[in-house]
Structures are given as C-alpha cells and as structure tokens.
Amino acid sequence: MKRTKLLSILALLLIVVLISLSFIKLPISTLTNERIQSETQGYISFHGAEAQSLLLLPTPKIELLDSFFSITHPSIKLDIFSSYTELSKSLFNDENIHITSSKTTLENIETDLFNNSVLLEDVIENLKIEILSEKEFTEVKSNNFIYKGKIKAPAGEDNKDWVEREQLLFKSTGINSKLSNSSNNGEA
User: What is the C-alpha separation between 28 and 26, in angstroms, rounded?
Assistant: First the structure.
C-alpha cells in the first residue's frame, strides 16, 4: 500500500515537473550568422534577433523575436523580417527543419522565377515551413498561409483619393516542392 502511494506521488511529481518545464524559456544566443550559413550552405544569412529563447517542451525549439534573415540563392534573393519565429529540427533526422512564423514580411525580392516579384513584398501570416532532406532531394512543404498587403492606386487614377490599407491578397493552398541536391542551380 505504501509502495503504491509512493509511486503515485512520484508520478504526480514527474507530471508537475514536465508541465512546469513546458512554460520555461531559457534565454540563449546560439544562433549566429556563421552557424546559419554553414547549416544552409551559405544560402541564408542571419542578421540578428531582439531575443532568442530555448523552449524545451513539448518539443525542443528555438524562439526568435523580431528576427532578420536574407536568402541569397541563384534563383531568388530576398530579405525576411519576422516578429515571431520558431525553429526546430527533427530528433530522428538531423537534416529535417521546421520553421513557424506568425507574421513575416518579405522585402527586396529579386528573382527570375516569375515576373513582378515586387507584388510579394508584404506580410505573410501563419506560415509553417517544413524542409525535409534526403540524399538526392530536398522537399520544401508549407501550410495554407495568409498573404496580406497594400494595393497601390491604379495607374492613371487620381492618387489623392486613393487610400492604401492592408487587406487580404490571397490565401495559399500550401507549397510542396522537391528540389534536386545534385546541383545548386535551384531547378526543380
């Protein structure tokens, strides 16, 4: 009877400890530009964040507040500003990365993938990206995210009466792209 009572108390204590650990954010500064560039083969640069924290539970992840990244790839270059970002790696495959951002702004987009990339320079909400790497391919997946922006006055219209306001531009249906790792030309 005493043994059962002791095991119940220990189990309850373990649950309390695990629940309390899920609320702890440990301040860290492990993400550096050098580390990000080495992990991404130089394609992504990290220019800083207001704060970095390590969240232990339910899965280990790094939280970034007000972060600034840039992507420099042969097929696309852009700056990324995010008010809140979570980064995590798979425990089973060190190459798999999960990125979640509640509000992201894209700026200074240069690409030859499509015309008029300036249209993408606005806010993306609730973006989740999963990068899965295999030997021959890297697969990039995203959720259905929301893209908001401001539309400029139509050409030839009287601009003094035009009011720019943030509005929903589109809701994505997600992205699923498989890229070959055999060459660095960015082709699918």
Answer: 6
